[in-house]
Amino acid sequence: MPAAAAAASGTAVASYTDYIPDSVKSFVSDLYRSIRGGDVVGTDKLYEGDFRRLSARVYRDKPWPPAKAVASYCDDDHVFLLLYSELTSRHAHARLPGLTLTHGADSWDTYCSLFTVVLQNVLTMQLPNQWLWDMVDGFVSQFQRFCEYRTKLEDKTEEEISLLKRFDQAWSVYGVFNYLKALVENSMIREILEREEGLEQFTMMNGYEHKQGGSNVLKMLGYYSMIGLLRVHCLIGDYHTGLRCLLPIDIGQQGVYTTVTGSYISTIYYYGFANFMMRRYADVIHQFNKILLYILKYKQYDEKSPQYDFLLKKNEQMYALLAICLSLCPQNNLIAEDVSTELKGKYGTEMEKMLRGDGQAHYDELFSLACPKFIAAWPPVLKEPFTNYNQDVYRLQLKLFLDEVKQQLFLGDIRSFLKVFSVITIGRLAQHMRLDENALRAILLAYTRKTHAVDNYGKITSSADFDFYIDEETIHATESKSSKHHHDYFLTHISKLEEVMGELSEVQLAEPAISPGEEACMFPSYDGAHWHC
Hints:
This is Eukaryotic translation initiation factor 3 subunit L. By secondary structure, this protein is mainly alpha-helical. The chain has three domains: 17-97, no CATH class; 125-390, no CATH class; 420-497, Arc Repressor Mutant, subunit A. The protein has helices at residues 3-18, 22-36, 40-57, 67-70, 78-95, 101-120, 129-150, 158-166, 173-187, 189-194, 196-204, 217-235, 239-245, 261-277, 281-298, 308-328, 337-356, 360-370, 392-407, 411-420, 426-433, 437-450, 486-505, 516-521; strands at 423-425, 452-454, 460-462, 466-471, 474-479, 525-526, 531-532.
């Protein structure tokens, strides 16, 4: 940096320091001491409480002070200042409008420096899981927004085009993948989760390190980076690879990913969407049923949380996806009564039309609502004429989905007829459907193909609600008897009982006034023949 620029920068920092409130100075000092002292509970209170309150009260519409301005309150600690820069940069990108490309490039440099320190050094600090999840989530979110920005070229000024050329390596898809994969590999989290003893200890300690001087930072960043990789792969349309990145985490069980609300909801949403695009509808229905029940139960407790808007958005997206899944794969027995009631209230009319086969517009509308914001991850072509191509990947994914819907138009009719006729000849069924026999055979083969999929472990699974086979020229159909999820039934009613008991505990019952004479009658005596007061 030239001397004049350095002097100007120093003057700016000095002037900024004069305006830092005492509450902010105390926060920085307390956070630094808490992290250095290994006080995870104290750090969590400062991160979840003080930082959010100060952000809302002091820095609602402006950025936090730069790292240099607060360096004197943390002994100029390099690692702490990187954590502070990441934290305040994430706040700015999430809350402040009008940030420039330079801000995005600076944020990329901050993440690169922080992750490099984590990957190349042995740390002795522990951070709250919520902070570490927010770190990975913010990293992917800023990558997503930067990709969206650089693919809208039509209205860019010459200065903006020049900055895009200058920062051509900032937020590259290769760089993002490399950091996320390096965090997974260097943390050895996959090896930890593969060993039964390691998984048990990791889950019991909630990812924290029980040894004195140990650190959970690299381990938990690696753990959450697997979820981050799933999300990035979904954003670019590579669903198979995304699901493979998540294989070490058992989605069917409660785990560390469920202890942070944002992590839990993001994991299930992107896991469900990836399976949805791979036609594994039954698995999507089962997983969404669980998470939507969770949201129904705990949504009221998260109203003041900064994650509340995110929770409501994902809630609506998952109901929209669930409506599509149940229209393509009618498995209403897989969802709980409460979820079914909510779903019918939101999309009952649309589902009826889609089940009848005349809801093409609703498929388009619900997919547009439910899908993530896809990104064009390739570098922009910075040559005239400049065009916008930020919607290209979305249009491609929508086309693939609608093509799949068109291929399943006749499957609803097949399902309806074979539920009525358990035994019917191919010729008679063809007459009912007004098709020739060869076309019917092709549709029967298509039904078998569309209702079966290969899961992440290479096993063929069926999402059909009935089975059939053809013996010579006769079709034999039997309705599939899916196993009842007794645990879901009991958990739902236990939850309802807890709600009722919670309401009863808040009811104040007035104690009846008892006169002295009546009080004596509360303890009667028995003389062998009669009771007396």
